[in-house]
Backbone:
């Protein structure tokens, strides 16, 4: 699947935010996020003012934001996008009461992942919902991960690859 094929829309507080899967992680269109959080009609101008108000943000802009091809009504356009970590940084520079629910939402997702690191059964429950695995499959997934690592020493993202290995090893697949 190409990055273009993995572009989607998400909704925050009734506003559409375009996102795209790039190098294995979701990147969000900066202007869409800014528009969802402020009352300005010109998010491009607002972003320029943000960079002026926060010199550190301006200095690190190219590390936080990347231009990625996003499908638009007029065809593919390269738009400024930020990943979740970059969004946290951008939100810190937006003095708006609307940033609080967005920050809480991102914090909740981050907390859930940290909780999963501390309690792998939570990750398994999420994986069950995402990939349709049964509770009994947990040990089989772990065994397949260990076996896979033994034969392939590079680090693999374990959630998806384990689920795919499990499905591949089930009868009828």
Residues:
């Amino acid at each position: 699947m190409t990055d273009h094929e993995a572009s989607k829309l998400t909704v925050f507080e009734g506003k559409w935010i375009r996102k795209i899967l790039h190098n294995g992680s979701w990147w969000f269109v900066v202007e869409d996020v800014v528009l969802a959080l402020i009352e300005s009609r010109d998010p491009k101008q607002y972003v320029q003012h943000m960079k002026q108000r926060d010199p550190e943000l301006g200095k690190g802009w190219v590390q936080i934001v990347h231009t990625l091809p996003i499908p638009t009504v007029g065809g593919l356009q390269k738009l400024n996008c930020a990943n979740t970590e970059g969004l946290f940084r951008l939100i810190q520079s937006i003095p708006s009461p609307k940033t609080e629910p967005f920050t809480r939402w991102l914090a909740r997702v981050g907390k859930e992942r940290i909780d999963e690191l501390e309690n792998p059964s939570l990750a398994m429950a999420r994986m069950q919902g995402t990939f349709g695995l049964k509770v009994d499959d947990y040990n089989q997934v772990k065994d397949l991960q260990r076996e896979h690592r033994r034969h392939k020493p590079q680090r693999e993202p374990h959630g998806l690859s384990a689920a795919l290995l499990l499905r591949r090893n089930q009868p009828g697949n």
